[in-house]
Amino acid sequence: MHRSRGTTLLALALALALSISSIAAAQTKTVGYPGLGLEPGTPGGTLTLALGDSPPRFFYYGEISQPIQLLSQQMFDSLVEYDLETYDLIPALAESWDVSDDGTVYTFNLRQGVTWHDGEPFTADDVVFTYEQIITNPEARAGDAAQFTYTVDGETRQVTFEALDEHTVRMTLPAPSPVFLLQQRFFIMPKHALLPFSVEGGAEPAEINDAWPTSVSPSTVVGTGPFRLSAYVPGQLVRLERNENYWKADEAGTPLPYFERLEFLIVQGTEAQTAQFLAGNIDQLNISGAQFPDFKSRELAGAGFSVIESPALFGSPPHLAFNFNAADSDLAELFSNAEFRRAMEFAVDRERVIDDVYNGLAELPGTPTAPVNAAFYEDTTGLFNMYDLSAAAAALDALGLVDTNNNGVRNISATRELEFTLTYGNDSAVFTDIATIIQNDFAEIGVRVNLQGIQASQLLGTGLSGDYEAIVVALGNLPDPELRKPIWQPGGSLYYWHRATQPASPGESPNFDAMEPWEVRIWEIFDANSTEMDADVRAERYREWQRLNAEYAPVIMIAKPGNVAAVYDTVDNFVYSLGVIPGYNPVPFYFRR
Amino acid sequence: MLVFFTRRILLFFPTLLLVSFISFFIIQLQPGSFTDRYLEDPRFSPEAVERLTAQLGLDRPAIEQYGRWVWGIVTRLDFGFSFFANRPVSTMIGERLAWTVVIAVVTLGFAWLVAVPLGIYTALKRNGFTDAVASFVGYVGLAVPDFLVALLLVALVLAYGGTNVGGLFSPRFIGEPWTWAKLVDLLNHLWIPVLAIGTAGIATIMRQMRANLLDVLHADYVRTARAKGVSERNVINRHAVRTAINPLVSMAGLQLPELINGTIIASIVLNLPTIGPLLYDSLLAKDQYVAMTLLLFASLLLMIGNLLADLALAWVDPRIRYG
Question: Which fold has domain B96-288?
Answer without folding.
Answer: MetI-like fold (1.10.3720)
